[in-house]
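tool_call: predict_structure(chain=1)
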Amino acid sequence: MMSAMQPEIFVYYRIRAADSAAALAAFRELQEQLAAEAVPVSALRVLQRQDSDSSLPTWMEIYGPGLSDPVGLEVRVAAAMAPFVQGLRHRECFTAL
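tool_result:
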């Protein structure tokens, strides 16, 4: 019998370009708090889509392997990023094959 694989989560959303620095600072601050709680922050990344609208870029958070509670962590990051998100956060979960 196979054991359940931990999901990897991909979340994408748009922010205003003018908020990019503040949004990234909020993300990094949360990463520091998580590191102090012994959460492996190397498994939590944020990227910006290259072909995005420059005034409203698309960001993607990636919750990779090694996180004990990626869904709970995503909820926590969503709260920290809420002031910057324009529209909806779109969450997709995948498991390794």
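agent: The helical segments are 20-36, 70-81. Proceeding to next step.
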